[in-house]
Amino acid sequence: MTKIRELVLKMGRRSKGLGVKLFRKNSFLKNHKTLFIIILVILVFIIYISISLLAVSIGRIKLAELKRDMEKSGPCHEDCLFKRQNLELVIKNNLAGDKKLQNDFQEYFLAPDDTGALLIFKIELLKMMADVYGPNNPPEFLIDYLAKAAGLEELKVEIIKNFLAKNDDALLIDYYFSILNSAEGESLKMAAIVALSNVNHKQNLFRVEQVNNLKELALQESSSLNLRSNIVFLLSDYYLLFAEEVKTGLTSIYASAPEPIIKALAAESLNNFGNNEFIIPEIPETDWQNYFK
Amino acid sequence: MKLKISFFRALTLLCLGFFVLIPKVFAMTPGTLVYRTSSDGKMYGYSSDSLISADKNKILKHIYPGHVGIYIGQENGEDYIVEALAGGIVKTPAKNFVNESQGEKLLGAKLPIQATPSEIAKAVIIAKNLVGHKLGYDFDFKKQKGPGNGEWTCVGLTEKIYESSGISNPNNLGSLEYNQNYYAVNITPDGFDNYSLANKDGDCFSKNLEFSKIERKTDLYLPLPEIVGFNVGVEYNGERYIFLPYTQFLQSSLRNEAVDIQLSDAFNDDDVRGKTPAALLLLRWSLINNPLSSLKIIANKTGNFLSDLKTKIFGSDNQAEIVWENNQEVKQPTLNKEELAKDNIITEKININQASSDDYQEAIGASPGGIIESGDVMIVEDIQDDSQIKIADNKTVVPLVSKQNIPEQTSKINTQVIPSQTLKESVQKLISAVSITNSSSTISTSNNTQSSASVSKIVAGVRMATNNSTGLPGAVVQSSFNEPKAVINKIYSTENNDFIELYNPTDYDFDLAEANFRLEKAKTAVDPSLMMRIGNPSDGLYPGGTMIKAKGYYLIVRDDANTYYKNKADAIAIRNEFSWTGSGYIIYLGKDALSSTADEDIIDAVGYGEATYFQGSGPALKIEDNYVLNRIKSSGNNNEDFNLIVSDDPNIVWDETNQDNQTDNNQGVTETPNNEQTNNQNNFQSFIFPEPIASEGIIDLWHFSECYGENNYSVGRFDCSIEIKDNYPIFSKTLSANVDLNKTALSFYYRNSKHSTASPRLNLKLKSDGGQEMNILLEPGLFQLEGLPNSNWRYWGAPVFSDDNWHQFTLVVNKDEGYWAAYFDNQEKYKQAFVQTLATNFSSIELSGDMGSVSVDEFAIWNRPLTFSEIKANLELAAPFSPLTDRVAQIAPELKYFWNFDEGSELVNDSGGMQAVDEIKNLKIDLPENSWVWRGTNNTGIINKWGNNLGVDLPAALKTKDMSLAFWWRSNFYPNEGRSLVSLKKGTSNQLGLSPDQVRRSFYFNGQDGIFSEGGGIDLPYDELWHHFAVTYDSYRYSLDFYIDGQKKTSRPFVWVKDGQNPNRLEINSELNSVEMDDLGIWEGALSTSSVLKIYEDSKIAN
User: Fold this and answer.
1) How close, in Å, is residue A217 to chain B by CA atoms?
2) Which of A232, B226, B657, B1056 could tie B1035 with a disulfide, CB 3.0–4.6 Å?
3) What is the pTM for the complete model shown?
4) In this structure, is the dihedral angle defined by the CA atoms of residues B296, B299, B305 and B307, taken in order, positive or negative?
5) Contact at CB, B121 and A291, closer than 8 angstroms
6) Which residues of chain B from 59 to 78 reach within 8 Å of chain A, CB to CB?
7) Of the ranges A249-253, B27-31, B231-235, which one carries the lowest mean pLDDT score?
């Protein structure tokens, strides 16, 4: 113990002597005190900046990087995609516990610019939030966004896809039907149809009166052929639950729909259900072209 | 340093091509599949390049799989393709499908021929829906056809999309179709091809099946596992398989489509498609990622080495036998040494996986007459050409190590939930925000999500429908390793004779007790109650043991049952719970205690009648008394899988009476076959449908039970058959699936339909897509066979058409065991060994004939060779194969019209009245004057004189195909003998008629005529007394029977009257002089022999 103490004291005396000698004997430092101070200040500044940078979370940095990358090159595949997924992994790992990062998400998402790459970036934000928060915990600003009339339809569709559609809830079914019965855009209605189609426990959530509603929607000539055909498909999902009502509905569609495509799809479903007497009408080529538009 | 990784780029199906833009004439149909090569125009199967190639450093360098995507139409004016790339299932602009700068080449565009427009539309919707679900690429090639994340390759995606294009709702991705029985469009037949060798490395390229075997590359250093094994590809029988786009491209199920959109461009691959994650792929293809297959191979290799060592030291036990060594699987030959020597069969051991060039030459030489389709086997000239196995140049190097941090799909992330409003609150907020503007419909918002009773029924049904573990014909029997499996085959519930019959669809016997099988039941409860634990002495007696044979049945009978059933029983259940009613139950077969409808121990469940729970869309029929609920197929839907068949219990007393129709009309009628008469007809023998033979692997089966169609039909071995003759239509059919001639069987019943007066010839052709044929010709004393190896072509002295009876012919081709054989009835008559690999794409059959007429029935083709014991058993069972076409059970005959002609008894002395009135429906026949004659005291009949034709329209056509006609008749001797045709007609056609006279008994049926018997005193006594005639037609037994005075005289086989041609008029037309008639009755249904006798006995009057 004594030996160690003596060693430490010796080393301290030696280093102290060295410092004094340095300033006394080094004429360069003696003559350039100002320069030395400046360098010192710069060093301090650099250290300050570094500390400041380190204070920004890695998640926020990666988010900014992701945004920049997406703005720069838009959608990409494979290697580029994996790079982004790598960034997203870091972001998602930090999102839950980083309030500032959460604010960034909200800020970026609600930014007024919805054009091009930024729209894709916003969709990516949605996917990350769904992964982290879980589909049954959408942040409130997303629900507000869904509710506001001015919201961009593409983003509303993505909110439904990434959050709502992964939940089974009777109220959600009502919500989807309210979209179908509203004047909302077609892509939102399609998202509602897809969400309804992928409900897991249809037997608990689908109700017989919805069959008639769907029938009416399928006959609504103001809607596109594509939308209405998908409603006919959706109607088939009700068959296991309400066979007679669905048969009646499809028969009505078959009888009343002016377009051969809708008639054909209804007839095909009916025939699949065992009523093989429905003749499938010829569908003109132009009808298919319209359908795929 | 940036390394160019062209191998991995190729792996992810990035390729080069030339720019093809056909001037826009018409738009390419969305749903069209587009195909391209990999870089430099290379594509395995299409070009001569190997799928996997390495550089001189033995590092995997390129693969050339080619690529396919599905065109989904335009979005915002731009054409898009959905494809599976390394980034997953993505939607890319169509113009980026082919990269000109990489030398990729567009192969073409195709649409499934079979796909209906709506299926194509659904395929497009499915493709669109799959995009964006973050479904990753199957870098392991373990699944390739989805449905999960990381389970898709390009061609697996397009195949699955069309297979699933029949689902009712294409937006419901949970219902993608994985049961090949329900594929909407099966572009490429499912299966594994390990015989269509494409190069000397042992790689296969299949033109007929989805998966081609790709040999492991033992000369590679990287990926390392290639040296010792492999860990990519679908693993099947110890080999790895990959589904290749060009295999799909070649399918005849596709038709070419014109390309009129821009599908190619020159672009920087990295910019547009990005670079392939090389390190990730290395990881995926490594031992670390999935060591099992590699370890398995190492273990096998070690085992084989030790085995070889043992053989070298101690010698082999079977050195003279042929052994086809197919990787680990060594199959024993069927032929013994003597047979082999007799037939001059090659007796050398050939390892097909390690064959040398000499081996191939030897194999070619060994099969000069056999079918060897070029490209289907390795024996092709090109294989000698080194260009087939080009080694790629050394421009690029695969990086060995990358420290790039690759995010895995399964990477764990923090999922801490951030407090927010509840979802329910959020949705309520949303609903109020959506303005309902354009619908008159209102949807009530219900908080009550409790499902109704009917829904809960379906819940159970839906849930259980997925548990289709049954294995009767129609169901796919999984080849899991000897897992005990059985299904409920029959349920009976009459009186105390309750029984359940089980069926074992597997190929192995097993012990039901050892498998812990049990039966439980429930009426409405979710939790069923125990009826029997098979093998448990507390639950039953087991006179037949507890083993259930392969493809065999096991009958469990209640101990209160009659001796008939108890004598048949394998087990007698003694628990009181072993009983149920026919009105509605669900019966479970389980392998442990069951607690709910979704219990994982449920093996099979049958709900019937008013059952609360059932499999599929609905319960089976209610079980009526004296009827057995009988399984006819195994689709997992109780509603469709069962019919009712009549019980075979001899103690049943049948009641033919239809009292509703008769009691009200029989008042005061003394001579009518009354209630007593019909009530006592207790011997009605309803036709019992034969229990069909459940035989697995039937590709196509024709019962010909439709009896009418494009071919000529006659009465067959079981129901109807087709007749083959030179001027009759040829029977030509496309098969449901291609026949692999290496492992198949076909069988049919045949007979000389014109009996011994002709020497008919039957020609059967099995045709391949490539124009190959296998021909079988049968004619009296000759069996001729072309198209199978080592056939002697003509085999004289064959037991063909030696009599007029039905015989069964069976052909079996079993390449695995190295033989084909022809069986006549239960005799193996001709057998030849062969070693060649035969074509696998036989897709159609044709039956033609000349020199006479041959009847053919019960034609079946299998995708596997039948065993001799199966063939024998099939013949002995004397039953058609399952599934049978459903037909309602035969009903007892019902008297529909009856004229006793007794109106004249009061009037005959005054020339009588002018009408005879039917006793049942008051149907009146107008009579000419002086039509009444005395038959006995107070009993009159009518006389039908020349020129006095009688007739009456029936109020409705007879409803059944079974029908009967009976009457009393008297005629004078020659020269005053008379003849009248009593006929039930449809239009001008006599559908059932009899025209007897003293010398000839003519008949009419279904527009045809004939003679039952001819000659005075033959059948009909030559006298002038009253006699009773009856003619009956039984459409279940296909028999027209003729009776005189209650005795059956003869029968003739006939096909039933066509739908819509049932008779609706009665005519009595005099053909000669006059006859007297009485008691004319018309029945719906076929009177039985004893019924006819009873009618005769009850209505006869002493002459």
Assistant:
1) 8
2) B1056
3) 0.45
4) negative
5) yes
6) 73-74
7) B231-235
